[in-house]
Sequence to fold (354 residues):
Amino acid sequence: MNIRKVHILIVIVMAGIIGYFGITHISQPSCQPVRQVDLDETSLVISRQTDLNETFSVLPRMSYPQPFVDKPQRTDVLLMSPWLAPIMWEGTFNRDILNAQYRQKNFVVGVATFAVKKYVRFIEGFLGSANKFFLSGHRVNFYLFTDQPEKVPSMKLAPEKKLFTITVQSYSRWQDISMNRMDIISNHIRTHWHYEVDYLYSMDIDVQMFEHIGVEIIDTLVGTISSWQYTKPRDSNSYERRPESRAAIPSGEGDFYYAASFYGGSVSEVYKLTTACFKGVTEDRANGIEAKWHEESHLNKYLLYHKPTRLLSPEYYWDEELPQPQIIRVKRLSSVRKDLKDVRSEMPDPHFEL
Ligand code: UD2
Fold:
């Protein structure tokens, strides 16, 4: 290749580079939405810039019992995981201090819940109790996914709470309704929630809240310890152990067993979690296998290898069928007893009726 050809080649390559970066730059919106979360993992590696202009916030003067290092608030339960994630139990935190810290941030929390087919009957109990007990006094957006928006009761919510109803299709198998929640949440984060909320929680609809669930649940990645399995050795609980499933956890491994009824965290962490779990579900489907406890099995695998930064004790999902042991001082949220044969039985799809 002669020198002239080399020059022409260099000019073409340079023009390509300038053109590419020019277009990328121009296509950036000039004004970024305030709440936009970067869902691209690589940004976690490169963005190390600290905002020194951030205003310093000062807590109001408050009066409360003094903490002492030699007087633990509770000695009957584990307060910290081996990776130092706090476990939330009644009697271990002061809600007034947490509220005062949280109020300075002005966060919006989103709650995603699904009421498809006969589960619409649980909407009123869920919303009525959540309006009263869930992050009381703080901004919450409830996102209710349903195939029957006409059946959503009109309810007066507290001024800081909002309800958004989103229509979704139903599936003939209840397991698919439950598992596809991961995909729907992941997609909705990409299209909406990363502009709208700071933290996001997914909750089953067939539950009711009986005590306050406050800002003690807010953290980067949050899982709830199952009320059925919190004392079981890891090899006798419900993890998926078949190596053919993407949800498989090898024997001898496992921390806690987490309930899929209540998990959450920052928008970007919930995006990673739901995307990864649904990828596992999809690969299992392609391989003709379904994990033992559906998306809950995939969630357990994910949380084993991406340790939660905060854990909610079984107070935050207590199964009504279980007797209440002494360590459960409050049942903040409990399942609603349901007749499985009835709620999961087939119902004609109103959208396809002639
Ligand atoms: C467990 C999990 C649940 C899910 C399921 C998968 C707990 C406490 N709950 O509960 O999160 O992982 O196992 O096996 O660990 N739904 C509908 N319509 C339907 C069926 C389900 O809307 O016809 C939605 C609804 O929001 C419901 C959720 O899916 O709360 C989970 O279904 P479930 O409550 O019947 O599952 P369950 O009790 O076996």
Summary: The pocket of UD2 is lined by residues 113-117, 119, 174, 177-178, 204-206, 259-261, 293-296, 317, 344 (CB under 6 Å). Residues 99 and 250 are 41 Å apart (CA to CA). The radius of gyration is 24 Å.
